[in-house]
């Protein structure tokens, strides 16, 4: 465990959805993780959650991706892991959501995933 009672793995590379699921179980949540570790994170494992369900399309759950974007270093690696059953249209919507939050920075993300 590290600052704020966060599991060491989540301190090194933020697991946004897993941290949110842990919050549903009474453990430190997103705000605590970002305060303790966000500025030092080298990577972020991005996916959305709803209740105990994780690996949802970004924007389809309760994760505050704007807060994550404000807290992560610009050079932190971003990885998005989704469940297998989402359609291409849903995945494109998730990419647009991450682009709108500033977590996906390539210039044509909004047009490429229309």
Total beta-strand segments: 5
Report the biggest beta sheet as strand number plus sense, adding barrel if it closes.
3 strands, parallel
- Count helical runs: 6
Largest sheet strand order: 1-2-5
Instruction: Tally the structural domains.
Output: 1
Report the principal-axis shape: globular
Provide the low-confidence segments as ranges: 1-13
Structural class: alpha/beta
Strand content: 15-25%
Order of helices and strands: HEHHEEEHEHH
Question: Which SSEs are present, and which pair or pack?
Answer:
Blueprint lengths: L7 H5 E3 H9 L5 H8 L5 E4 L1 E3 L2 E4 L8 H7 L5 E4 L7 H14 L7 H4 L2
Parallel strand pairs: 1-2, 2-5
Antiparallel strand pairs: 3-4
Q: Explain this structure to me?
A:
The chain has helices at 8-12, 16-24, 30-37, 65-71, 88-101, 109-112; strands at residues 13-15, 43-46, 48-50, 53-56, 77-80. It has one domain (3-112). It is built from 6 helices and 5 strands. The N and C termini lie far apart (42 Å). The protein has 114 residues and is of the alpha/beta class. Helices cover 41% and strands 16% of the residues. The strands form 2 sheets. Strands 1-2-5 form a 3-stranded parallel β-sheet. The protein has a two-stranded antiparallel sheet with strand order 3-4.
């Amino acid at each position: 465990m590290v600052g704020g009672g966060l599991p060491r793995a989540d301190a090194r590379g933020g697991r946004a959805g897993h941290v949110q699921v842990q919050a549903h179980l009474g453990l430190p949540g997103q705000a605590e993780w970002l305060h303790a570790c966000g500025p030092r994170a080298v990577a972020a494992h991005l996916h959305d959650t709803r209740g105990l369900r994780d690996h949802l399309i970004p924007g389809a759950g309760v994760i505050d991706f704007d807060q994550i974007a404000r807290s992560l270093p610009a050079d932190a690696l971003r990885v998005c892991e989704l469940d297998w059953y989402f359609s291409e249209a849903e995945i494109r919507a998730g990419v647009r959501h991450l682009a709108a939050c500033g977590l996906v920075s390539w210039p044509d993300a909004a047009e490429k995933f229309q």
